[in-house]
Design brief:
The complex is a heterodimer of chains A (258) and B (806).
Chain A (H helix, E strand, L loop, with lengths): L1 H22 L1 E3 L2 H15 L8 E9 L7 E10 L23 E8 L2 E10 L5 E7 L4 E5 L2 H4 L3 H6 L2 H9 L6 E9 L2 E8 L1 H6 L9 E7 L2 E10 L9 E10 L11
Antiparallel strand pairs in A: 1-8, 2-3, 2-12, 3-4, 4-5, 5-6, 6-7, 8-9, 9-10, 10-11, 11-12
Chain B lengths: L1 H19 L12 H21 L9 H6 L4 H27 L9 H6 L1 H12 L8 H18 L1 H14 L3 H15 L1 H16 L7 H25 L16 H8 L3 H12 L9 H10 L2 H11 L1 H40 L3 H15 L1 H21 L4 H7 L4 H7 L2 H8 L12 H23 L9 H22 L4 H19 L5 H13 L5 H40 L4 H14 L3 H4 L17 H27 L8 H9 L6 H24 L1 H15 L3 H6 L1 H40 L2 H18 L8 H17 L8
Helix pairs in contact in B: 1-36, 2-9, 2-10, 2-11, 4-7, 4-21, 6-7, 6-11, 10-11, 10-15, 12-19, 13-22, 14-17, 14-22, 16-17, 16-18, 16-22, 18-23, 23-24, 23-26, 24-34, 25-26, 27-32, 30-31, 35-36
The chains are: A alpha+beta (258), B mainly alpha (806).
C-alpha cells in the first residue's frame, strides 16, 4: 500500500516537473538576450503588431506624505474582427487596410482624465475625430480614424513606433543585462543602463535602479524602470518610475455620438 | 385533473401548516416558520456579502485583484500561502472567541449581526483606494493587507451563520429541514445577482476590468446583503442546546494514526492532491467573455443557464449511484471529465460550443455534490470497521497533514499563467494570440490533472456491497456487546439475525458465472428477430438475460465483500497475530486499571513466539512492539497516576452534565466542569488505551458465542417489534387527530377575531356554496373545505363597505 501511495506521489511530482519543463525554464546569456530584445522590437512593429495595439505608459513621481503623481497615457487602436478574432481587412483603404478602424486616446494626471480623443465611426454611422479636455464638453470634427493615424500628431505621440523608438537606440553595450530568464513564452530581462547611455540621454525614462523588459511571443510586452524611494537601506522599496505595457489587441470601445 | 386536485390539496395543507405555526412551532419542534424565513433571508445576505468578499480572494483568476488592479499571479499566490498559514493560527483563536462569547443574544448572532459591517466596510475602503496613483509595490502592499485580513476574519461571519442552525434546535430532523429549505431559498440570491450584474454592466458600459464595477455595482449587492443578514441576527433565536450526554473523545494523534491506516482515506485525499491541475480550465469561460466576446448580455444569460447544471446533477446522481455503484461513479465522473475537457480543447475558439461542453462538464463534476458525502460516510464506516473507533472529525482534520503538498502544488498554475504572458498587465488577454495559447495550455493542464486524479480510483474497491457487509459487521459487534451488557433491543436482535441469514445465503450460493451471464446476454442481443413475435420474444429474453447478468454481478460482488470484510472479521481472532493479541489481552484482563500499572510485562506470563521462519520472525516483531507499548503505558500510568487511579471519572462527567444552566454564570461553571471532567477522561483513555484496546478485543472475541442465544430470541423480538409498530401507529393517529383539532380551533379563533360584519359575509358565502353543492352530497374533503374558507375570507375582505378591523 505504501509503495502504491509513494508511486502516486511520484507521478504527481514528475508530472508537475514535466509541465514546468514544458513551459521551458532557462537562462539566456546577455548577448542572446540582447539579440532576442532587438528581434522583439522589430517584431512588435511588423505587420498587424505595429498597427493594431493597446499600449499604456505611466510615469510616477513620489511625493512623501502625499499620493504619488502619476501621469498615464493609453492608446487603443482597434478594428473589426471576425469570429476567429482575425482582423477584417478592407480593400483599397491605404496602409491601414482594416475594417472599421478606430482609435481611443486617454491621458490622465493624478487619476483625473485630462484629455481624451476618439477617432472612427460613431453609432450614427458618421466618422468623427472627437476631442475632450479636462472633463469639459466634447468637440466633434469630421474625420476618419484612417486620416487620424496618418497625422503627425498620431505618429509622433500615439503610434507604437513612437513608443518603442527610445528602445531602438539601445546598443548592446548600453544595456548591462544582469539576468535573462526564459519561462515558457515569457522572457524577463533585468538590466541597468550604462553611464554612457545615460549621459547621452539625460532625460531617459530608463534612468533608474534597474530596468525590467518583458518579452512575450517574441514581442515587447512591457518595459519598467524601478527607482528606490529613499537613499537606500533595508526598508527601501522600489517603485516604478516608468512603465510601458503593450497588448496587441485592446478592449472594444465605441466612438461617441454628438 | 386528479393531479391538479392533489397539488391544490398539498398547497392548501402547506399553507395551513405555515399559518398555524408561523409564530409558534408545532409540538416537538423548536422553530416557528417565521424563523425559517429569517434564517433563509440571512442566507441570501451571506451569499450577497461573500459575492463581494470573493473578489478579495488571492487568485490570478480574480478579476479585481488580477485583471483590474494588476497584481502578478505569482505574487497573489505568495500572499495566498501566507493567508493560509495565518488562517490556521487564527482559526484556533476564532474558535476560542466564539466558544467564549456569552451575550443575551447568544454566541453566534452577535457575529452575524456585526461582522458584515467591518468586512464590507473594509472592502469598500479598499475599493476606493487611489490605485491609479499607486506604484505596483504600493498596490501589492494594500492588496496584501486588506485581502489577508478579510480572508482570515471572513469565517467569523460565514461559519457563525452555519453554526447557528445547530443551536436553533436540538431536533436533528428539524435542523435538516431548516438547512434544506434555507439552501433552496438562499440559492435564489446568486442566481439573481450573477445574471443581473453583467446586464447592469452592459447597460452602464462597465466591464469586470473596471474598478467602478466593484465600487458601485458589486458593492451595492454586498451592502444589501448586510441588511438581509439582520433578519437572521434579530429574527432567529439561539436555544441553548446543553448536550445531555458524554461522547467519548479520541485523542488527536491517536485518531490521526488510526486514520492513516485507512487506505480509502488515502486514495480520496491523494486523488485530490495529485489532481490539482484539474480545475485549471474553470477560468476560461469568464476570461473568454470578459476579454474575447466582450458581450455582457450573453454572458449574463449563459451564467443564468449555467446555474442549473448543479440541479440536474443533484437529480441524476442517486440514479447513477444505484446503477454504477461507488467505484463505477468515481470512474465515470473522472473519465467523462477527461473526455469533455479534451472536447473543450478542440472547441475553445467557438464560445457557445465551448459553453455547451462546459455545461455538460459541470453537470458531471457536480455529481460529487451528492456522492461525496455518501462516499465519505462509507470511508468513515470503513474506519470504524478497521479500528473500532469513530473518528469522523479527525478524518477531516488528518487531511491537514497534506496541506504542505497542496501549498507547494498551488504554485504551478500561477507559474503557467506567467509563462503564457500574464504578469501585471491582464489586458494582454484581449490579444487572441495570448488568450488562445493560454486557453490551450489550461485545457492541457486540466487533462493532465484529471488523468492524475483518475489513477487512484482504479484502486478504490469499497463497493456498495462491501459497505453493506461492513455495516453488517458493525451491527454484529454492537449487538454482541449490547447482549453481553444486557441492553440489546428487539430491533437489534431481528437486524442481527436477518443480516446473518443474508450472509449465509451469500456463502451458500454457488459461485456466480459472470462471464457466462455476460456472454448469454450478448448472444440474446445479437439474435436476429424479424417478425413482431420474434422481436417481442427477443425483448423478453434480453430483459431476462440482463436481470440474470445483474444478479450474477451482484452475487460476485457480495462474495468478494464476504471474503474481504466478513471473513477477515471472523479470522482476526484466529490468525497468529490475533492469537497472540488474545493471549496478551487475557493476561491484562486479570488486572484492574488500578493494578495494571504495577505489573511488569514479564509477569503477565506471555512469552515470545519461537521459530526462525518468516512468519515467526514477523510474530516476534509484533510481540516486541506490544511489549514496548505495554511498558510505555505502564510508565504513563506511574507518571500520571502516581497517587492512584481515580475511579469516579464517569461519575464526574455525569455530575457535570447534570449541572444547572439557569443563567449565564451557571452555564459558564457547567461548561468549565464538563471541560475538566472530559479532559480527565481523555487523559485516562489515552494513558490506558493499550489496556482498554486489549480488553475490548478480548470481549469482542468472547461475545461471538452469543449468536445462538440471540437467534433463539428472534421470534419473540419480531412480536415485540410488531407490538411497538402498532403502538406507534396509534400514537401517529392520535397526533393527526390532535393536529386536526388544533387547526380547527385556530380557524375558529380566527373566525371569531373578525368583525361581526365579516363573520356574516363569510357565513353567507358558505351557505351559498353549500346550497349550490347540496348538503346531501358527500361532505367536502377537509383540505378542499379549507380552500373554500380561504376564498371566503379573501372575498369578505374585498367588500369595501365598512373599514376598520376586518
Amino acid at each position: 500500500m505504501i509503495k502504491k501511495i509513494a508511486g502516486m506521489i511520484l507521478i504527481a511530482v514528475v508530472s508537475a516537473a514535466m509541465l514546468l519543463s514544458l513551459s521551458g525554464c532557462n537562462t539566456l546569456s546577455a548577448s542572446e538576450a540582447y539579440e532576442v530584445f532587438r528581434a522583439a522590437i522589430e517584431e512588435s512593429l511588423t505587420g498587424d503588431n505595429g498597427k493594431i495595439f493597446y499600449w499604456r505608459e505611466s510615469t510616477a513621481r513620489l511625493r512623501p506624505g502625499s499620493s504619488n503623481l502619476v501621469d498615464e497615457v493609453s492608446v487603443n487602436v482597434l478594428c473589426d474582427m471576425n469570429e476567429n478574432y482575425e482582423f477584417i481587412r478592407e480593400e483599397n483603404a491605404g496602409e491601414y487596410d482594416y475594417e472599421n478602424l478606430k482609435v481611443h486616446v486617454v491621458k490622465t494626471h493624478d487619476g483625473n482624465t485630462t484629455e481624451e480623443i476618439w477617432a472612427g465611426t460613431a453609432g450614427n454611422g458618421t466618422d468623427y475625430i472627437v476631442r475632450a479636455t479636462d472633463g469639459g464638453s466634447r468637440a466633434f470634427e469630421a474625420g476618419t480614424a484612417y486620416q487620424f493615424v496618418e497625422t503627425e500628431e498620431f505618429n509622433q505621440n500615439y503610434s507604437l513606433r513612437s513608443r518603442l523608438e527610445f528602445l531602438t537606440d539601445i546598443e548592446e553595450d548600453d544595456l548591462i543585462i544582469s539576468s535573462a530568464e526564459q519561462q515558457g513564452n515569457l522572457l524577463t530581462i533585468t538590466a541597468t543602463m550604462s553611464d554612457g547611455y545615460l549621459a547621452e540621454h539625460p532625460d531617459s525614462d530608463l534612468d533608474g535602479k534597474r530596468v525590467v523588459i518583458e518579452i512575450t511571443y517574441g514581442r515587447i510586452a512591457s518595459v519598467t524602470t524601478y527607482k528606490d524611494e529613499g537613499g537606500g537601506g533595508i526598508f527601501t522599496l522600489d517603485y516604478e518610475s516608468y512603465m510601458l505595457e503593450i497588448a496587441y489587441t485592446g478592449p472594444i470601445f465605441t466612438v461617441p455620438n454628438p | 385533473m386528479q393531479l391538479i386536485n392533489k397539488v391544490k390539496t398539498l398547497a392548501v395543507g402547506l399553507y395551513d401548516e405555515i399559518v398555524l405555526h408561523w409564530n409558534k412551532p408545532a409540538a416537538g419542534n423548536s422553530i416557528p416558520y417565521k424563523e425559517y424565513l429569517n434564517y433563509s433571508l440571512g442566507g441570501m445576505g451571506q451569499r450577497m456579502v461573500t459575492y463581494l468578499l470573493g473578489y478579495m480572494a488571492l487568485s490570478a483568476t480574480n478579476t479585481l485583484l488580477g485583471s483590474t488592479i494588476g497584481i502578478r499571479p505569482m505574487h497573489l499566490q505568495y500572499m495566498s500561502i501566507i493567508a493560509t498559514i495565518l488562517g490556521i493560527f487564527v482559526a484556533v483563536l476564532r474558535g476560542k472567541w466564539v466558544d467564549n462569547t456569552r451575550t443575551r443574544f447568544g454566541r453566534f448572532r452577535p457575529y452575524i449581526a456585526l461582522m458584515g459591517f467591518p468586512l464590507v466596510g473594509m472592502s469598500l475602503i479598499f475599493l476606493f483606494l487611489p490605485f491609479d496613483a499607486m506604484t505596483y509595490t504600493e498596490k501589492f502592499m494594500w492588496v496584501f493587507a486588506f485581502a489577508v485580513v478579510i480572508t482570515v476574519f471572513q469565517p467569523l461571519f460565514t461559519e457563525t451563520y452555519t453554526e447557528l442552525a445547530s443551536v436553533m434546535t436540538a431536533n436533528s430532523n428539524e435542523r435538516a429541514r431548516l438547512l434544506t429549505i434555507s439552501m433552496l431559498i438562499s440559492s435564489l440570491a446568486p442566481t439573481i445577482y450573477s445574471s443581473l450584474v453583467p446586464l447592469i454592466l452592459d447597460w452602464v458600459d462597465l466591464t469586470f476590468t473596471n474598478i467602478n464595477t466593484y465600487r458601485y455595482v458589486i458593492a451595492a449587492v454586498a451592502v444589501l446583503g448586510v441588511g438581509l443578514n439582520l433578519f437572521t441576527a434579530f429574527g432567529c433565536k439561539e436555544r441553548v442546546i446543553a448536550s445531555k450526554s458524554y461522547t467519548p473523545k479520541v485523542g488527536v494523534f491517536e485518531g490521526m494514526a488510526a486514520a492513516f491506516r485507512n487506505k480509502y482515506w488515502w486514495i480520496r485525499n491523494i486523488a485530490t492532491i495529485i489532481g490539482f491541475l484539474e480545475s485549471a480550465f474553470l477560468v476560461i469561460f469568464n476570461w473568454m467573455y470578459i476579454y474575447g466576446v466582450q458581450d455582457m448580455a450573453t454572458y449574463s444569460l449563459l451564467t443564468l443557464i449555467y446555474g442549473s447544471a448543479s440541479t440536474i446533477a443533484m437529480i441524476i446522481t442517486p440514479y447513477l449511484l444505484r446503477k454504477m455503484g461507488n467505484r463505477g461513479i468515481l470512474l465515470f465522473h473522472n473519465i467523462t471529465n477527461i473526455l469533455l475537457i479534451t472536447f473543450m480543447l478542440l472547441v475553445y475558439e467557438v464560445p457557445l460550443l465551448y459553453f455547451v461542453i462546459l455545461y455538460a462538464n459541470t453537470v458531471i463534476n457536480q455529481l460529487q455534490l451528492v456522492y461525496n458525502p455518501v462516499l465519505n460516510a462509507e470511508v468513515k464506516d470503513y474506519q470504524q470497521f478497521l479500528t473500532g473507533k469513530r473518528v469522523d472529525f479527525i478524518l477531516t482534520a488528518a487531511g491537514q497533514i497534506l496541506v504542505p503538498i497542496t501549498l507547494a502544488t498551488s504554485f504551478v498554475l500561477p507559474f503557467v499563467y506567467e509563462a503564457m504572458g500574464l504578469t501585471t498587465n491582464y489586458d494582454v488577454l484581449y490579444d487572441h494570440t495570448v488568450r488562445g495559447n493560454m486557453f490551450q495550455m489550461l485545457c492541457v493542464c486540466s487533462i493532465i490533472g484529471a488523468t492524475l486524479n483518475l489513477i487512484p480510483f482504479f484502486f478504490y474497491r469499497l463497493s456498495r456491497e462491501q459497505h453493506r457487509m461492513i455495516i453488517r459487521v458493525l451491527h454484529r459487534r454492537a449487538a454482541f456487546a449490547d447482549y453481553a451488557a444486557g441492553s440489546i433491543t428487539a430491533r437489534q436482535i431481528v437486524e442481527t439475525v436477518d443480516e446473518e441469514r443474508e450472509i449465509r445465503a451469500i456463502v451458500s450460493a454457488p459461485e456466480p458465472d459472470v462471464k457466462g451471464a455476460r456472454k448469454a446476454l450478448w448472444e440474446e442481443r445479437l439474435k436476429k428477430a424479424s417478425t413482431a413475435e420474434e422481436k417481442a420474444a427477443k425483448k423478453q429474453a434480453v430483459k431476462e438475460a440482463k436481470a440474470h447478468y445483474r444478479d450474477m454481478k451482484s452475487m460476485a460482488l457480495n462474495k468478494e465483500a464476504y471474503r474481504e470484510i466478513y471473513l477477515k472479521e471472523e479470522e482476526k481472532f484466529s490468525t497468529a497475530e490475533g492469537v497472540l493479541k488474545l493471549e496478551l489481552s487475557r493476561a491484562m484482563a486479570r488486572y484492574t486499571h488500578a493494578e495494571i500499572g504495577s505489573v511488569p510485562f514479564d509477569d503477565l506470563g506471555v512469552s515470545a513466539p519461537e521459530g526462525e521462519d518468516k512468519e515467526s520472525l514477523k510474530l516476534r516483531k509484533a510481540f516486541e512492539r506490544a511489549k514496548k507499548k505495554y511498558e510505555k503505558m505502564r510508565a504513563g500510568i506511574q507518571k500520571t497516576y502516581a497517587d492512584g487511579v481515580p475511579g469516579d471519572l464517569e461519575e464526574n462527567i455525569e455530575k457535570a452534565y447534570a449541572m444547572s444552566t439557569a443563567d449565564k454564570q451557571k452555564i459558564k461553571a457547567r461548561d468549565k466542569a464538563i471541560d475538566v471532567a472530559e479532559r480527565a477522561m481523555l487523559t485516562f483513555n489515552k494513558t490506558f488505551s493499550f489496556y482498554n484496546d486489549g480488553v475490548e478485543f478480548l470481549a469482542e472475541s468472547e461475545n461471538r458465542v452469543y449468536y445462538a442465544e440471540i437467534e433463539a430470541r428472534y421470534d419473540s423480538a419480531l412480536e415485540e417489534i410488531a407490538e411497538q409498530n402498532r403502538q406507534d401507529e396509534i400514537r401517529r393517529e392520535a397526533e393527526k387527530e390532535r393536529k386536526k383539532k388544533e387547526i380547527e380551533e385556530a380557524k375558529k379563533a380566527r373566525f371569531e377575531s373578525f368583525s361581526p360584519k365579516k363573520q356574516a359575509r363569510i357565513t353567507a358565502r358558505r351557505e351559498k356554496r353549500a346550497a349550490k353543492k347540496g348538503e346531501a352530497a358527500a361532505p367536502a374533503a377537509p383540505q378542499a373545505a379549507a380552500a373554500d374558507e380561504i376564498r371566503d375570507e379573501a372575498a369578505a375582505d374585498d367588500v369595501t363597505e365598512g373599514n376598520g378591523n376586518d
